[in-house]
Q: What sequence folds into this?
């Protein structure tokens, strides 16, 4: 399909230009047949009209095709929340619980085969509660974070690794379930594991299923980056992990951060837009869903994004082809 789109864009002809060329050829042929006198006369007439003719040069273009797959529908989903339970996080427990309950509402529109687990970030005092599933009440989920014991450790990577490879973690994980990890802390990650190594391990550990990771931490430009420990509490390693998953880090000091879960993961998001990789010649844009051209879309120049009127089905291939100018 990508090659077909490129061929279509390359072979588009300017019908008006083609018609003009044909007309000029016929006129020249007619002048030749009318004799030299008419040629000379016509030449001077042509010179007299020359100022009305505009010659334009066409800049060279290349064809780009951006494509993306809609995720397959979730069958089962395991969600692990790795939570900083040090003293500075006490005021955030209620927000975490509210966010989890909001997220559960989103998940239930996709599947009821889900479960939540909560762990502390203290690898020396690792505690786990769960699983919470479809039968758990809203109150159960909302108070779950506050049921974890207060700890001093803030090593989210290490605690997550130890739990997932432990007996409790093996019991929690279902072999065929998609997996989503939340890391929530107002401090820097304090284990000896780098974000790169942790990311590589997650890729290997979940190589047979889809997985994603979402981070909520103190960011450099956040509301509390200058207030908390003079900025030393910024979660740079967590931010690096977010970058490796090609997503934004959620600022824990945002007043509305309990809604982070609703927009946090590709596993639970249905794609209805495609951000283009380059700036298009707008009139050249064509959009296909599963090899069928569609016309229900719009282009937002400010964000360089194509928005679809209707959300494609699970597993659909979305392709946007367009020309770009070559400088």
A:
């Amino acid at each position: 399909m990508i090659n077909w789109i490129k061929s279509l864009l390359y072979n588009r002809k300017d019908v008006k230009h083609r018609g003009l060329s044909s007309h000029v050829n016929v006129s020249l042929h007619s002048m030749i047949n009318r004799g030299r006198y008419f040629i000379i006369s016509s030449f001077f007439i042509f010179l007299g009209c020359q100022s009305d003719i505009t010659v334009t040069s066409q800049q060279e273009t290349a064809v780009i095709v951006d494509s993306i797959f809609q995720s397959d529908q979730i069958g089962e989903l395991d969600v692990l929340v790795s939570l900083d339970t040090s003293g500075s996080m006490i005021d955030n427990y209620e927000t975490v619980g509210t966010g989890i309950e909001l997220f559960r509402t989103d998940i239930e529109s996709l599947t009821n085969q889900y479960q939540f687990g909560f762990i502390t970030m203290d690898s020396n005092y690792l505690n786990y509660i769960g699983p919470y599933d479809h039968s758990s009440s809203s109150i159960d989920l909302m108070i779950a974070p506050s049921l974890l014991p207060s700890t001093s450790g803030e090593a989210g990577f290490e605690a997550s690794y130890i739990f997932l490879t432990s007996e409790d973690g093996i019991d929690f994980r279902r072999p065929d379930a998609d997996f989503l990890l939340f890391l929530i802390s107002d401090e820097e990650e304090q284990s000896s594991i780098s974000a790169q190594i942790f990311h590589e391990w997650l890729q290997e550990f979940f190589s047979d299923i889809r997985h994603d990771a979402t981070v909520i931490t103190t960011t450099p430009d956040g509301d509390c980056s200058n207030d908390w420990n003079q900025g030393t509490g910024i979660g740079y390693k967590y931010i690096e992990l977010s970058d490796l998953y090609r997503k934004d880090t959620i600022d824990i000091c945002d007043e509305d951060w309990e809604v982070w879960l609703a927009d946090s993961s590709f596993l639970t998001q249905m794609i209805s837009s495609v951000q283009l990789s380059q700036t298009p010649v707008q009139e050249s844009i064509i959009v296909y869903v599963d090899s069928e051209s569609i016309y229900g879309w719009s282009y937002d120049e400010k964000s360089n994004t194509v928005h679809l009127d209707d959300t494609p089905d699970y597993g659909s291939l979305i392709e946007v082809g367009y020309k770009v100018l070559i400088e």
Notes: The mean pLDDT is 79. The first helix runs from residue 2 to 10. The longest strand covers residues 61-69. The radius of gyration is 30 Å.
